[in-house]
Amino acid sequence: MENINLEKKHAAKAAAQLIKNGMTVGLGTGSTVNYFLDALANRISQENLKIIGVTTSFKTAGRAKSLGITIIDIDDAPMIDLTVDGADEVDCHMNGIKGGGAAFLMEKIVAHNSNRVVWIVDSQKLHEQLGSFPLPVEIVPFGSGKLITDFKKHHLHPVLRQRDGKTIVTDMGHFIVDLVLNKIDQPYQLGQYLDGKIGVVEHGLFLDIVDEIIIGTSAGVRQLKRDTLQK
Ligand SMILES: O=C[C@H](O)[C@H](O)[C@H](O)COP(=O)(O)O
Predict the structure, then answer these.
(1) Residue 118's CATH number
(2) What is the count of structural domains for the chain?
(3) Do residues 113 and 141 both lie within one domain?
(4) Residue from 10, 63, 88 to probe ligand 1 pocket by mutation (most atoms less than 8 Å from CB)
(5) Are residues 153 and 105 part of one domain?
(6) Mean pLDDT of 133-149
(7) CA-CA distance, 40 to 44, in Å (whole number)?
(8) Which residues are catalytic?
């Protein structure tokens, strides 16, 4: 755990170095992003940077505000220059699964409205193929039982996300089902199938979205960049 946190910190610090004065920055969600927020707040105060943040969850908004980072609503931001976010799993094609922290709907909207997207991850998040992390799917509460039964029929092994016996409700008022798939052979096909399901608001497959992945190591970082990715 010590090592993992160190890797997260290294990735977060490297991402904070990408921020330039005057930028509007998309602020992701999660434990790795929390390190990024700390590093960014340090840079803002030490270098007197003018930075505006667009947040991806109520949690991140609260933390950013407490660190003195100015935040605005996404609809008030003419553009988002760069978004820094975490991920739960990443493959060699730079696709990923997000949503372990239930924030992926807002994260996907912010990512789609960003000029550049950078993920910060520890080395354990890298896998040959996606699927070892259960795939989160955000669904409308009305008719959620029917949708879960339908997912079961399609062998998608859905588990309604709960904590202490209570169904988790996202910041946007929806439920989450986690599809326990172990491996996802055809992520694009699965993404299309989920996109077409009535009652599904969004899913945690982030395909062809990230431009750069900063992977923390015990000694520093290494990077994957989309423009140098082998097809
Ligand atoms: O919903 C949560 C997000 O997608 C997070 O970015 C993701 O779960 C990674 O979080 P962490 O940095 O805590 O592993």
Answers:
(1) 3.40.50.1360
(2) 2
(3) no
(4) 88
(5) no
(6) 98
(7) 6
(8) 107
Binding site membership of 102 for ligand 1 (Cβ less than 6 Å): yes
Q: What is the pLDDT of residues 57-98, one digit of tens each?
A: 999 999 999 999 999 999 999 999 999 999 999 999 999 999
Task: Determine the distance separating the centroid of ligand 1 and the alpha carbon of 88, expressed in angstroms.
Answer: 6
| The pLDDT of residue 103 is above 80 | yes
Which of 1, 5, 9, 33 to probe ligand 1 with, by most ligand atoms within 8 A of CB?
33
Does 88 contact ligand 1 (Cβ within 6 A)?
A: yes
Do residue 46 and residue 114 come from a single domain?
yes
ipTM over 0.95: yes
Average per-residue pLDDT in the chain? 97
Distance, CA of 185 to CA of 182 (rounded, Å):
10
What distance in angstroms lies between residue 100's CA and the mean position of ligand 1's atoms? Answer: 5
Entry field: residues in the chain: 231
Give helix 2-16 / helix 31-47 axis angle, nearest 10°. 40
Q: Contact, 149 vs 116, CB < 8 A?
A: no
Span 163-220, pLDDT tens digits: 999 999 999 999 999 999 999 999 999 999 999 999 999 999 999 999 999 999 999 9
Under a CB-based contact definition with an 8 Å cutoff, are residues 104 and 28 in contact?
no
Residues 8 and 96 in one domain: yes
The residue nearest atom 8 of ligand 1, judged by CA position, is: 100
Look up the pTM and report it: 0.97
Query: Does 106 contact ligand 1 (Cβ within 6 A)?
Result: no
Same domain (yes/no): 53, 96? yes
Question: Which domain CATH number covers 182?
Answer: 3.30.70.260
**Kind plus residue range of the DSSP H or E element containing 158:** strand 158-160
User: Residue 221 is part of which domain span?
Assistant: 2-128+207-228
Query: Tokens in use for 97?
Result: 């699964």
The atom number, within ligand 1, closest to the CA of 28 reads: 6
- CA-nearest residue, atom 6 of ligand 1: 86
